[in-house]
Amino acid sequence: MSVRVFLVDDHALFRAGVKAELDTITDEVDVVGEAGSVGEAVAGIAHHKPDVVLLDVHMPDGGGAEVLRQIRTKIPEVTFLALSVSDAAEDVINVIRAGARGYVTKTISSQELVRAVVRVSEGDAVFSPRLAGFVLDAFADRPGAAPISDPELDLLTPRERDVLRLLARGYAYKEIASELFISVKTVETHVSSVLRKTQLSNRYELSRWATDRRLV
Hints:
phosphoprotein; 6-stranded parallel β-sheet; globular; 216 residues; single chain; 10 helices; 51% helix; Arc Repressor Mutant, subunit A; alpha/beta; Rossmann fold
């Protein structure tokens, strides 16, 4: 039988793209519903009772962790797989601690996403390359485990971190805007805010700062 999947992402265009792609390439998964906010997600998951929820990490009204918090106690049998543009350690750890079974980034191919959905539905934990290390470090019961918080990094909002990560990878403002489904003006606003909070003066200094914190 197909794995019944529910999509949660605040970008309708992205949801439509994922649904169309999954419907086209495989019979292994069946997208039974979608939502663009925490409230819609909680109601939709409760109604459809899917096998797997593909869950965005950052949304304006609370994000994936809030969906997990509200659903885990009501429908514990539902499995969650985070699907996010972010590959920051703190985002990975927060959503796994909240109860997600895996975490993959939006750079994943359609075929890989299908495999990830099927695997988590069967009980496996699935992570994009290098993200598993964050989880192992955070949950290792040993002295010296890698820290998962940074006071300076905590000053940035989730969206500012997304912009910074792409900026540090060499993306132009227009490319960042396209990747994050925001305007170029909004990208400029976020960069200005990050520069102010980090007390740095240009994108090259920001790139080094982001690299030092394993954001890239």
